[in-house]
Amino acid sequence: MNGQNSAPDGSTQRDSNPQKTGALVVGSKSDLATSRSAENKMIRAEEFDQPIILQQPNTWSRAIAMGIVGVTVLTIGWASVAKMDEAVMATGQLEPQGAVQPIQAPINGAVVEEIYVKDGQRVKQGDLLIRFDPTAGAAELRAAEQIRDSLVRQNQFYRSQLAGSSPVSVAEISKLNLPPEVLSLTKNRETLLEENRLYQAQLAGNTASLTPEQQIRAQTGLLESQSRAAAAQAKVAQAQQQLSQTQAQLQSARKSLAIDEKIYNDLAPLLVDGGIARVQVVRQEQQVIESRAEVNRLEQEEQRLQYAISQAQQELANTVAVSGKDLLDKIAENNEQIAAIDSQLNKVILDNESQIAESEKRLSQAQLTLRYQELRAPVDGIVFDLQAKGRGFVANSSEPILKIVPGNALVAEVYITNKDIGFVSEGMPVDVRVDSFPFSEFGDIKGTLVNVGSDALPPDQIYNYYRFPAKVEIDRQAISVRGNEVPLQSGMSVSANIITRKRTVLSIFTDFFTRKTDSLKNVR
């Protein structure tokens, strides 16, 4: 009973263990106290051996589950609404908007006197770049003027002779610097004309209009016919003497020509090897030309003298008394010779006209040379590939003496692969990253796609894929480095991200899984 009162839950314990309770009842009374004490200890031990069951409330588990579901829903909702830029990457380099300007010398063979710029120097339009030596141009101008004026005076003289104008004095003829063969023709023509006037006066019996000398000749016609043979013989001898002198001069000229040609042939290989100045070879070539011209002149003079000897010998054979018929025949013969001489003079006039035209060209070129002794910058930009390194440089008009890279705004010329060209169009925004300036530190430059090629370029040694050329107009021409603006330079390599469209984050993931799923179709 005490056990039940002291432990309210003891009945439950005893009910659950009937064997132990029955053992206590049938025990002896003497052991009752001892048994009860042991029973109480056992009951207390059993009470401590009873397991404790803790019940957790449902609120936290429900809240965690709802939180996971909520975050998932919000993430999916954000991914379906939030948009990201989709970009196409293209590489290339910065180029000036204008083409590189090659600068050539105004004339061929111009000699540099002073250089005012150097490679990499920035210049403005009109700045003085190079000054050429005017000495050669001035000499060329004077020579061209002299040649032209001389040819013009010669033609005036020839035309006056053909027109039958009054004879020109010997002093005036000497100033014309007529070629010897042409001078001989004019003298022969004047002689023939005088003879015709004399013959016509003798036929008419009127010598009043003749000069005193011609009158004397007319009065002494008979004596003249008798002495003609002796005069013709003297003329032949004189012509032969002149021919001998000319032949000696011709032989000497040919030797000089051979020597000049040999010297030129020896100098020409040295010019190729760079062992001699070009000016010396050109001078020797000019000497060869002058020697050859002298040989040609003497050969023509030899032919003229031979012709004169032939004429004199013919006159010597015809030493007969002059009669009316003979006078008429001589007039006709002289007229034929005069016609032949006139034909040659007309040909000389035409040749001179051609040389005058050529001299006019040379004169214009020489004037242009003097006018453009200073080479100035046609555009703003930076000097590049300067060929002239110092004074004395001989410029070649067919090759640029320097180049100028335009100093206007730079554009990015990039190449887009043919697999990325689908969504690309003009006007799209572009993020341009200059490879020389890391993006993580210096950022990028905004730009706009202004041009896209209409056809793909084939692969080459640099790009081994088909590509479309494109141009990007950038917003800035400098990069800020530690507070300083560093200007961009032509030729810098760039990477351009062309923003083609905006896509949701969810579509990017679904596209990824779609590609993975589609790739399973090719698995065998």
UniProtKB/TrEMBL annotation:
Q: Which UniProt keywords apply?
A: Coiled coil, Membrane, Transmembrane, Transmembrane helix
- Main location group: membrane
Q: Which residues form a coiled coil?
A: 222-256, 281-315
The record's listing under Pfam families reads: Beta-barrel_AprE (PF26002)
Q: Where in the cell is it found?
A: Membrane
Show the segment(s) annotated as Disordered.
Answer: 1-33
| Keyword Transmembrane set for record | yes
Domain AprE-like beta-barrel span(s) in chain numbering: 410-501
Listed Polar residues bias regions: 1-20
User: Highest taxon of the source?
Assistant: Bacteria
Its family remark reads: Belongs to the membrane fusion protein (MFP) (TC 8.A.1) family.
Q: What is the name of the protein in this document?
A: HlyD family efflux transporter periplasmic adaptor subunit
Q: Which organism is it from?
A: Leptolyngbya sp. NK1-12
